[in-house]
Amino acid sequence: MKIIFHGHSCVQIEVGGKSLIIDPFISGNPAAVTKPEDIKTDAVLLTHSHMDHILDAAPIAISNNVPVVATVELAAYIGWKGAQTIGMNIGGTVDLGFAKATMIHAFHTSGITLNDQQQIIYGGMPAGFIIEAEGKTVLHAGDTGLFSDMKMFGELYNIDLAILPMGGHFTMGPEHALIAAKWLNAKQVLPVHYNTFPPIRQDVASFVDALGQEGIKGIALEYGASLEL
Predict the structure, then answer these.
(1) Pairing mode, if any, of strands 10-15 and 2-7?
(2) N or C, which terminus of the chain has less Cβ within 10 Å?
(3) 92 with 102: CB under 8 angstroms?
(4) First-to-last C-alpha distance (Å) of the chain
(5) Beta-ladder partners of 114
(6) Model pLDDT for residues 75-111, shown as the tens digit of each residue
(7) Which of the four pLDDT bands, split at 50, 70 and 90, describes residue 9?
(8) What is the model's pLDDT at position 97?
């Protein structure tokens, strides 16, 4: 299993010649090294409806002729843009053939801001995903604060890699992300959702060092870099 970091919270998971991409925010990220039109994938997964997670979802899904997996409300919105969708909800599992994706809860907000209309559309509940494939388990927490049910996820799943936000301001910061990693009993942690915007600037090297002191392997990836599980 190969994990590619495309920046912000966007990761692509490759399994046996197929792949899924989570929260594609590429064209709006000036630091991105990949273009949305260069992404080849078999499914697009969305954790919630904020623009820095869904911006390139419909174009990528349409160009690859693949479905977008999201909460039913967000799936409806993406479907209006012409993409195939699979609407689901928290606690459910979708079998993609090459991987299974279980939607778990997160603590955040979820809405689509239409600035011209001065309107906010409800985007369904925020979520994360448990991805299981090739005997490996990857947790993508989505955007979230720290919450005690992470202990439950650590008991329910043998987590090989936890993808955790640690930028603060909009999500948990490094101190709470460190606690989350311990509660999840994750073997490895990939920090995301940091340094994209000024309010979420963080010292990721210090976070990785703090993980190491707890016996957890932390891996901070550059945009476009990858790791193997």
Answers:
(1) antiparallel
(2) C
(3) yes
(4) 5
(5) 119
(6) 999 999 999 999 999 999 999 999 999 999 999 999 9
(7) very high
(8) 97
pLDDT tens-digit profile of 24-79?
999 999 999 999 999 999 999 999 999 999 999 999 999 999 999 999 999 999 99
Can you give the three-state secondary structure of the chain, one letter per residue? CEEEEEECCEEEEEECCEEEEECCCCCCCCCCCCCHHHCCCCCEECCCCCHHHHCCHHHHHHHHCCEEEEEHHHHHHHHCCCCEEEEECCCCEEECCCCEEEEEECCCCCEEEECCCCEEEECCCCEEEEEEECCEEEEECCCCCCCCHHHHHHHHCCCCEEEEECCCCCCCCHHHHHHHHHHHCCCEEEEECCCCCHHHCCCHHHHHHHHHHCCCEECCCCCCCEEEC
Backbone angles phi, psi at 113, to 5 degrees: -90, 120
Name the token pair of 154: 């650590």
d(CA 62, CA 140): 23
> Is the pTM for the entire model greater than 0.90?
yes
Tokens coding 20: 């899924």
